[in-house]
Amino acid sequence: MATSSVSKGCFVFKPDFKKRKISVPIEEYFNKGKNESEDSKLRFETYQLIWQQMKYETEQLQEELNKNLFDSLIKFLQKCHSGFQNNSRDWGYQIKLREIPTAALILGVNVTDHDLTFRSLTETLQNNVTPYIVSLQARDCPDMKHFLQKMFSQLVDCCVDVESKEEEKDVQKKTHCSMDSLSSWYINVTQKTDPGKPGKKRNSSQCQPPPVVLILKDLESFTTKALQDFIIISSQHLHEFPLILIFGIATSPVIIHRLLPHAVSSLLCIEIFQSLSCKQHLTTVLDKLLLTTQFPFKLSEKVLQILTNIFLCYDFSIQNFIKGLQLSLLEHFYSQPLSVLCCNLSEAKRRITFLSDNQCENIRRLPSFRRYVEKQAAEKQVALLTNEKFLKEETQSLLENLHVYHTNYFLVLRCLHQFTSSLPKYPLGRQIRELYCTCLEKNVWDSEEYVSALQLLRMLAKDELMTILQKCFDILKSSSEKQLGGTAKRIEELLAQFQSPDEVKEEEDASGSQSKGLQKTDLYHLQKSLLEMRELRRSGKKQTKFEILREKVVSFIDNLVRGVLDLGHAEKTDRAD
After folding, report:
1. Is the dihedral of CA 539, 544, 547, 553 positive or negative?
2. Where are the alpha helices (DSSP H) in 138-178?
3. Please, what sign has the CA dihedral across residues 328, 333, 339, 345?
4. In sequence order, what are the beta bridge partners of 236?
5. Nearest to 362 by CA among 572, 574, 50
6. Rounded to an integer, what distance in angstroms lies between the CA atom of residue 20 and that of residue 429?
7. Nearest alpha carbon to residue 534 among 514, 550, 548
8. pLDDT in tens, 11-35
9. Of all helices (H) and strands (E), which one includes residue 245?
10. Which residue of 24, 55, 101, 235 has the fewest C-beta atoms within 10 A of its own C-beta?
11. By 3-state DSSP, what share of the chain in percent is helix, strand and coil, each rounded to 5?
């Protein structure tokens, strides 16, 4: 057949309609599988609310930690800019004019967090110093040609005038990028309009044009030749192209001298800026998010240990730690039906009144609740297991107790940290997170490190003890709880006793009485007296007033820790772990 070839062909017909993708709301995932619950939407909304609050706190914390660093950088850049405006003909000034102002920004090895820091830095500099900010990475600048092209393209994007931006992009395609073309472009743009005020012509009486800030995010990865060539050429155009460099360094400032020979590094006027260390940043994040009653969500010891181990042994990334915290929060609300009660106390008590029979049964299945029921009288056990109204009232009461427990827990934890953080070899850890992990794992007084810490506390001097007690008093005086309110008064009484004038006199008398046994010069009697004094010390000598007070302080903090940091108190009801 003539049409046999056509009949064997393969033809594609496009459908007239498009398949619409079915979008499933995120909260619907909480209903899938064996975790199906009637309040899954409420749990998801609670998760979103808590996470948004945590995210806001971390962002505010990041701004506070960067504030001092950014303020110092802004002062440095403004000082350098004023130097560019100086028209002095002094020989020393002319020599310095060929030095490129350079800020060496030491950020640490947590490279994954650097992008967020540079993003905030760029926004801050654009608002306070200059609109001409260029950020380059080593992978985009293998040689001088790409270096200048990337720099030129980002500078064109900094133009606030859309029409001029399009014109400059056309010019960039036609012209060869060089330092001369960059300088000509900069002079043309800054004389045409004021970058800070779009559309307004610049008058000769106005201030000098703003500088160009070039941020090299990963200095260690830049090729030596491209970096050297750029610095040498840029130093020769500073009078017409005011450039300021910011080096992002992950390791040490020594890397500058390893990459650049002396002839090139001498063209840089370098000032070093140090950011907060990763470990201090982690401690601050934990203090804001976990060591507080602001958020009801708490991590268990194992989860917290895993997250901190990943941070300390793998990447030192705060952002990854926060993502791990978010994943733990999401998993908790997804897998635990009773996570609907993981909210502030007043809202949790309100939700308890609306719990269904199934949710009441979930409470009764909790291992911690079972242990609580076993300790109650027979009549109360029957009521807790059969009467929903009584169960809800008891659960509200237990949640109140848990809230008070957490409030007292974190206050006493901070006091214990004040006592142990300055001890030799740091038996309970230097950071409060280390002490917190130990307290979550077991009762801290059962550890050998705690016994060692108490022994070292019995050797502290008066000034050290008074300083620590004053810090503890400042921590506890804001507490409204009766128990810790009385504790603050007790610390105030101990401070008053340490400041008593009789104490110094008793110490002097005690030290004078120790030398009475050494009056005879005969060797036999001297040896005998020394042996008697040693036996006296072993059997228990008379203590001075300071030693008695010091022993009272150690016993006081020991009793406080045993009374508040007891893990058994947390098992009275379900924790939001």
Report:
1. positive
2. 144-157, 162-174
3. positive
4. none
5. 574
6. 57
7. 514
8. 676 666 555 555 666 666 666 654 5
9. strand 243-249
10. 24
11. 65, 5, 30
Q: Tokens 């110490």 appear where?
A: 507
Report yes or no: 148 and 212 within 8 Å, Cβ to Cβ: no
Q: In this structure, what are the phi and psi dihedrals at residue 269, rounded to the nearest 5 degrees?
A: -100, 95
Number of H helices, E strands in the chain: 25, 5
N- to C-terminal Cα separation, the chain: 78
- Give the H or E element holding residue 135: strand 133-136
| Whether the Cβ atoms of residue 433 and residue 308 lie closer than 8 Å to each other | yes
Q: In whole angstroms, what is the distance from residue 441 CA to residue 433 CA?
A: 12
Give the torsion through C-alpha atoms of 358, 571, 51, 409, to 10 deg: 150
Question: What does the pLDDT look like over 357-391, one tens digit per residue?
Answer: 999 999 999 999 999 999 999 999 999 999 999 99
- One-letter amino acid identity for 442? K
What is the pTM assigned to this prediction? 0.81
Q: Per the structure block, which two tokens stand in for 231?
A: 């610095």
Collapse the DSSP code of 203 into the 3-class scheme (helix H, G, I; strand E, B; otherwise coil) and give the result. Answer: coil
| Structure tokens that stand for 124 in this block | 């801050």
Q: Please tell me the total number of residues recorded for the chain in this structure.
A: 577
Which two three-digit tokens encode residue 46?
Answer: 């609670």
Place of tokens 């610390």: 491
Nearest CA to 185 out of 196, 204, 169, 198 is that of: 169
Say how far residue 529 (Cα) sits from the centre of its chain.
Answer: 59
